[in-house]
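Researcher: Quick one. two chains, 953 residues in total.
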Amino acid sequence: MELTYDWRSFQSMFYPRRRSLVRQSAEPAGPVLVIREEDVIISAFAESEDLSDWIGARFEEMAAELSHRELVSFARADVDEWMVDMLGLPHFQDQMEFLRSKAEEALASKRGPNAPAGTMARTDVHAVSNGRDPLYRPHFLLSAIQGWWKKVLPSAYGIFIRLEGQPSEDLFILVRRGRLELFHKSDLSSMGAERCRQPEDVVKYLSEKHMVPVQGVFVAARDWLDWSDSPNPWGKIASGLQTDRVKLVPLRWDFLGLMTLRGVFGL
Amino acid sequence: MTPEICRVILHDMSGGGNPFPVQLLVNYWELCPTVGGSAGLSRKNSALTERLDQLVRSGVRNIASFVPWQAIESDISHMLTRFLQATAERDMSVSLIITPEVGIHFLNSGIPKDVMLRKDDMAQPFPGKMLESSRKQDGNSAGTPARISVNLPPNAFSLPSLFAPEFNKRYYSFLSRMDALLADLGRNQPNTVARLTVSLSGSFWKYYRSQQLSSRNAFGGVAGDYCGSAAIAFRQRLEQFYGQREFLDPNPLAANRWKSRHFDEVNRRWFYQHSEDVFRNRTFQLVRKKANFLKAREIELYTPEADPGFCYSHFLHTLSGGNADISRLSAIIDQAASRATYGSTSVAAPFMHWSSLGGFRNLSDPEKQFLILKSLLLMGGQGGGILLDESDWFSLSHAFRSRTDAIGKLIAAGQLKLRTKAIYLTPHVWSSGGVIWDEIFKHAGSSARISASVELAIRDGSAGVVIVDPATILTRELVFKLSALARAGRIVALPRTTLYTEAARRELEAVTGSTKRIDVDLGIPYHLHSFGEGKLVLFEVPDKTPAPWGAFVGSMLALGEVEGYCRMSDSRLNVIPLEKPDAQLGIFILNETRRHVAADIIFPNAVAVSDFAGWFSADAAVGAAETDPVVANRFSLEAAPCGVLSLAVNTDRNAKRVQPEAGVARGAPRLEQSVITHGEAHGTDV
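Model:
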């Protein structure tokens, strides 16, 4: 059965697993995220730290104790509201993006007169004001298709990604007006084993099935993982395109152009 | 009917013990069973048959699968039937979980979309909370009602209310459909269902809790659904319940006292527990209407990643893109494992489901292994186990899987049990147990249970102490059962409250009237009535808070001779003791921090400690002989980050090779410890 939103395949492709333990350092320095009810902390999080002792404590105490750390706090009432509002969105990826955007907005407006009560960020490091998410780095491909590419690319299209390795991994995503409408591992069983291995046949089959242009991306799993971990992978992708380590099927010049633009000019 | 036949039937109904504490999840609807799978159909392999063959090659003979309600309603290609055919052909046992649950990799966790359309039928948290901002915008007091949502992929959604009439109508119709489908299969293809077990869980009830209160304390606050349908059902059930003769004594107006607003919280707790029990009973009956020949097992399936108490933590780590908070998950499973529920006919076997859809996936392998093992010890030791997606299981190291599998086999063979020593009888198992429970949990740790079922206390003979929550409505039947427990040698503590019916009060007076009374005051005054070895304690419930419950609980546990097997010199390490039938113990020392922790384990008497791995061998006696036991009452050890140390402890004082002075000094014994979660990497000599 083809799931409309095959989250397992999606996260396996876009959110690779972390396998090793991050040891707690003697002097943790990362940001501390807090949800508070008025002045009382009801949830606290920092990467690889146990902050459970702070739950129920006053936020002022934490701010005083962790004066050397970046503190980001949200009001519980706002978070509750965002969580209810996100339920109208179709899938988890959209819902998480919505939550992130709301959190970002709240942080960006922290100095303004309409700043949500209880929301604050004490930071010198992150550039909140330039509109970039200070806390989270989205996947390079998702970021691209949801960014200005949506103005250039067709209103509806599909991307078929095959990570070649042992075993190979497939994912088909359908994008409509810059939003993910469907993502799953396509059922190619009716094509036959031989045709399934032919990139052109797979792309043609999916294109006919979903009645949208489909761009196939065929790449080694190791390269994909490397790009996913990299803060700026587009240079590597552009060089991969030149050396045929990335195969685009069919070779669409507009798509190739967009990728190269990002790689070479960082646009 | 002979007693043997009776025994066989009961054994069959309870699912035949606990044969598979480690259950691997293979959701048939995630694969493609439409090609192949049956000898009568195409021989061509499908994704499903290939996956099943792989599992068989890996030695897996038992799998579990969720049956999403929506998948059954749209199963035009008979996927479930083909799946069962394919497993039967491979001699695999299958557990089908058919009750609605969260953490299923299906849109809305498998609940049909049309059921989710009615906003009024969605569950609401305590106390019918409204979103604050919507109040401000609307300028009225109504606003948008808050929701109880499950924030797990593939989509976060509002939990429907199990009180909504429309929902129930559809749900019972789905159960009847399942019953008919399985009955048909059993009639036409008996081999297909020969190794099938239908698992019935407690569904959404345990998630009807406030995110806010649960975030402060795991399972904090009053649980329950406060939507409109629930409010109507609440009033109706109260009328029915207090319409019973017992509550009309001494006169019919007496019932009004029980229904007054003063007792609202007491009644709410009773109501939610009662509604859950009714739901379980109906589910059990409907699924066994035609397919009563099938094995049915009542379980309590719990998904920590979906817990309301993890919701904010999940939001924060999602925002940061970081690892999930293992300490939060660990605290949640501690509390979840201490909650024991009773199904329709038997104790519900507790299972922990790590869906990998939420925070669990973002943990590192050592953290995952830690949580898996901890859940297995806590749940498996109580007759349940863990439920894991098969791909997650096989992504873990071979060494870890082998060890976990070996522990699972010991549990399945009844060789490792987590003994219940104290039970706190509460009116509602998913609500906060309050200060008395907190003290019991602090003193007795993993040996303490909180339950709403007196049947569970009756059946679990090892629980020496039963303390009753002051918010419990005490009827004559309940007092009779509890006093019978005291007569049978248990310590039973009853609160002196106004929540006794007249008949219950008379029953209690009759029971205690003929016994000698001792008055004690340890901050909480109580009367002690002795029945041979058993004791009935009637304790006062002071109005003032905080009351000195610690001393009271301590004295109750001392009366019941409830004491820990050992203690750790460093509170960062926790101990889970599992008992073997032959007076031996498996002691598991858990370090949930990300640092090495060196500490001492201290036993009240000298014990012989050896390598736990000795128990894994086919002949335990031979295995034990291969290791070199050290006898002392204090041992030094070092636990790796997220590590679990395991020790085989023989508490027999006549244990051979006694070295009385050897272990007393810190670090003196050289004790080889097996480290489960980190395999050989952290296996250290101390």
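Residues 165-188 of chain B form the longest helix (24 residues).
Researcher: Thanks, that's what I needed.
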